Amino acid sequence: MNALNIKGLTKVYKGGTRALNGINLEVKQGDFFALLGPNGAGKSTTIGIISSLVNKTSGSADIFEYSLDAQPVEAKSCIGLVPQEFNFNQFETLTQIVVNQAGYYGVPRNVAKERAEKYLKQLDLWEKRNQPARNLSGGMKRRLMIARALMHEPRMLILDEPTAGVDIEIRRSMWTFLKEINEQGITIILTTHYLEEAEMLCRNIAIIDKGVIVQNTSMKSLLATLNIETFIFDLAGEHQNIALSGFEYRLLDVHTLEVDVAKEESLNNVFEQLSSQQIQVLSMRNKSNRLEELFVRLVESGRAELANSEQKKKELANG
Amino acid sequence: MGNRTMIALQTLWIKECTRFLRIWIQTLVPPAITMSLYFVIFGNLIGSRIGQMGGFSYMEFIVPGLIMMAVITNSYSNVSSSFYSAKFQHNIEELLVAPIPNWVIIAGFVGGGVARAILIGIIVTCVSMLFVDISLHSIPIIIITLLLTSILFATAGLINAIFAKSFDDISVVPTFVLTPLTYLGGVFYSLTLLPEFWQWVSKINPIVYMVNGFRYGFLGVSDVDYMYSLGLLVVFNVVLLGFAYSLINRGVGIRS
């Protein structure tokens, strides 16, 4: 069963901005799905339409086979939304915020209080439960939004930039938590600017740009299309001349070597050649995130195609 | 109405009541102080020189109008500020993403405004009892007029907040429309004191009917037929509630 089934979704804002251009998208039940795209690509509009915050121009969206148009109550009940901006009442306490949210979904108050304890504890917010939300740090506010979204125990959780602006320690603990709830069967749709996050968490991915889905595949097969990876080696001692046969490489400074490694080549070969020159490697890392490279490449090629087709249209129009 | 819908409505209503009770110094105390000053200045100091009006002491005459004035301003400002703040802070989205029928959103916010208006009405009535013995001609008419008026102005406040794009927009109507209409709505005088032309002009002002309907409930006297007042209140309520429902349904001011 699909958790989300979008067909021909189009959104044209007042003033004529076309944010979505008839996109089709399917997310399987239980998936951990990444929806990526540059700023203004249409991610937030897509999420806005799914969560009923934005009116669509045309197309359809089904949530667990419930039509958002024909069965909005059933469809909305399946969704938990963690928006990008803090949108809770800053003057209310954490307990009030989460218990009220459960109430809007028809959860009785006594059940809501039990769930408030469960989720505030799971997200390390229980100690702050009687404090107004404005007293929380940025990371705590992000976790509060996740707790609030889970209060009605949705089947699908949509997270729009959930870790924006939080430190790496909290980000990692949030990743662990999200992985756990996904393993319990909750479908998760994630948008993020941290591509490392998407690569680490998500099984499937769609990349959207200028209101069009430019790629929709599994994370594994997308990453497999990457032919060359660039590695940075931190070297012990100072080195002016290094020779590596069969590899493109650059000496960034006397301690740092950058090497391009094709998919069919082995890193062992690099290590062997460095070792034979008495060069000791202290550490090694990817130059950039693998997904980041693909993302930039896909978005750029999509834009180039769009520019070409517009150019052709102009040429045809001019005869 | 399903149990889920009932829980949602109850939650929103409790949240709205908690909001104005949490800031009671801003919401409950000022009307009590303002009305005390009205009673002292207009009732005691000036009123004692005016003599009788409509067969009652001036103080007795102005009590229903002053209660109504507080009810009108508080029901309006409660909903306009609460709904606009929810829009401004984006926490209106908590309601929009939830499976709540649109009428529940209206009923929750308007219900909060009505609760504050009734509480203020009780407070002002208690304050007025320190200055004058209050007579009650018809309790049902007092209750019906109070409810219909507070629902009407709470709905008007909601419509104002739906269209508002800044905090200035929610203060324009109370300052430039509501206050003048209330002061010219027969709170402090009987319409019979006015020349015929100005009596006719006053009867265009809807607040005249609310003040007089309420006064009839307390004193049994009114410048206009109280049944006509109640009828008008019902019509105004139906029109404004229908308009508010249509706006929320279309997502005006709340959905892009």
What's the topology here?
The complex is a heterodimer of chains A (319) and B (256).
Chain A: E1 2-12, E2 18-28, E3 32-36, H1 43-50, E4 58-63, E5 66-67, H2 72-77, E6 79-82, H3 94-104, H4 109-122, H5 138-150, E7 156-160, H6 168-183, E8 187-191, H7 195-201, E9 204-209, E10 212-218, H8 219-224, E11 228-235, E12 248-253, E13 256-262, H9 267-276, E14 281-286, H10 290-317
Parallel strand pairs in A: 3-8, 3-9, 6-7, 7-8
Antiparallel strand pairs in A: 1-2, 1-4, 4-5, 9-10, 11-13, 11-14, 12-13
Helix pairs in contact in A: 3-4, 3-5
Chain B: H1 3-22, H2 24-27, H3 29-50, E1 52-53, E2 56-57, H4 58-88, H5 93-96, H6 102-129, H7 139-163, H8 167-183, H9 196-202, H10 206-219, H11 226-250
Antiparallel strand pairs in B: 1-2
How does this model look, in words?
The complex is a heterodimer of chains A (319) and B (256). With 319 residues, chain A is of the alpha/beta class. Chain A has two domains: 2-219, Rossmann fold; 226-286. Chain A has ten helices and 14 strands. Chain A has helices at residues 43-50, 72-77, 94-104, 109-122, 138-150, 168-183, 195-201, 219-224, 267-276, 290-317; strands at 2-12, 18-28, 32-36, 58-63, 66-67, 79-82, 156-160, 187-191, 204-209, 212-218, 228-235, 248-253, 256-262, 281-286. In chain A, strands 6-7-8-3-9-10 form a six-stranded mixed β-sheet, sandwiched between helices. A four-stranded antiparallel β-sheet of chain A has the order 2-1-4-5. A four-stranded antiparallel β-sheet of chain A has the order 12-13-11-14, covered by helices on one side. In chain A, strand 1 (2-12) and strand 2 (18-28) form a beta hairpin. In chain A, helix 3 (94-104) packs across helix 4 (109-122) and helix 3 (94-104) packs parallel to helix 5. The longest helix of chain A is centred in the last third of the chain and has 28 residues, at 290-317. Chain A is globular and about 70 Å long. With 256 residues, chain B is mostly helical. Chain B has one domain. Chain B has eleven helices and two strands, in the order αααββαααααααα. Chain B has helices at residues 3-22, 24-27, 29-50, 58-88, 93-96, 102-129, 139-163, 167-183, 196-202, 206-219, 226-250, and strands at residues 52-53, 56-57. Chain B has a two-stranded antiparallel ribbon with strand order 1-2. The longest helix of chain B is centred in the first third of the chain and has 31 residues, at 58-88. Chain B is elongated and about 60 Å long. The relative contact order of chain B is 0.14. The mean pLDDT of chain B is 91. At the A-B interface, helix 2 and helix 3 of A face helix 1 and helix 5 of B. Chain A: It holds the Pfam family ABC_tran. Chain A: Keywords: ATP-binding, Nucleotide-binding, Transport. Chain A: GO terms for molecular function: ATP binding; ATP hydrolysis activity.
